[in-house]
Amino acid sequence: MIQGDKFKNFGQLVFCVTVVMSIFSCQSVGKSIAYNVYDKAGLSFMYPLQFICNYIVGPVALLFVDYIMKRMKISLLLYIGSFQAAQYLFGSLLVSYCVEYDKSAFFCPTTQLTIIIAIFTLIGGVCGCIFFIAYPVYMNSVSNQYNKTIYFGIGYSAYLSSQLIGNLIGYLYFDKISQFYFYLITLICLVTIQPLLFFLKEQRKPEEMVKKPLKEHIIILRKTLENSNFLLYIPYLTATCMVAGAYFNMSPTLLRIVLGQTENDKTSILYMLSGSGCVFGGIIVGKFAQLTSIFHSQWILSMIGVLYFITCTIAYKYMSLEMCFVSGFVIGMYMSGNDTVVASVVSKLINPSTEYFIADDMCTCMGYAVGAIIYLLIDKHEFHYYLIMLAAQLFFMMALALNAQRRVQFWIKANDK
Under 8 Å CB-to-CB from 182, ≥6 apart: which residues? Predict the structure, then answer.
């Protein structure tokens, strides 16, 4: 290995992840507290509903993403995709306006408000499909066989560490001004930062930019989903993302139960700690995969998931705020570790082509959507139902990982890395 290859395009990676981190820091400023905004307005169902709308549109939208990816520069794709960061801010902005200023506005009745936010979230879900394909494709294009797993680890840790930065800002300033103006200023900051993405250079190879008819793209995607190795991977991927959904569906509920109410400053602290966990999780799991194997890193990820279950159980049993905060740090590690494992499996064990990232994102959307539906159904139940569901998801995730690892084709590809 040439030493320079290990750090090739590192500067471009740093610029990209810094801009992305800044954009999603704006999202995190208001997204974490959005649960409290909805809950105080009697709309607690809105939070899991947005998750469902965000991810359920994914499988359909992703049928067309490969067609779009071949026709646009990566900078434009990331710019369009980054509007996904605005959906929770927009929903909270509308709710805040209705609560603080004019309840008689045409969009303030619950039905109209739900429909408007759901439509905007569906649009945001389409943008998210573009972003979460373009982002790993860009990281893949600037990396090589010597630095791929660690580059993915840095990329996803930076993206998810926006939770730390965003919630720190939210903690310091949320109660200083009205909720409406807080969300309005945050949205203005978001759209101001987004154009920096146009400074990214196209790194994809010419053969990756070959334009094909839409019908051919759909046929290629169908064949991708029929790939024997990928078929082994689909159930595991779906299960890991169902567990990851606890980040925004289970953690705020646990905090509300422990406190007996929603408190914005405590919510910000919870997600600041989650953001700290995100910083370490992706890099640790990525480095572990680089030094040993990707399959070993899957078990590290599973142990982090089990640790989250244990900390949540202790926090609920003893109504411990401190242990609730610890659980936030742990699920943050799981989130960035999960994204790193998922991207590494696709790029190193299966195929680094764009269509495989698209198929991967389809499974991710399915996992998050199913998880959000489950959380919506048990929203008014006792918290031990959440723990039972999390335990079942962890069990199936580990069983599916074991099944995939025992298959000969996966092991051959793992040993060829």
Answer: 30, 96, 173, 174
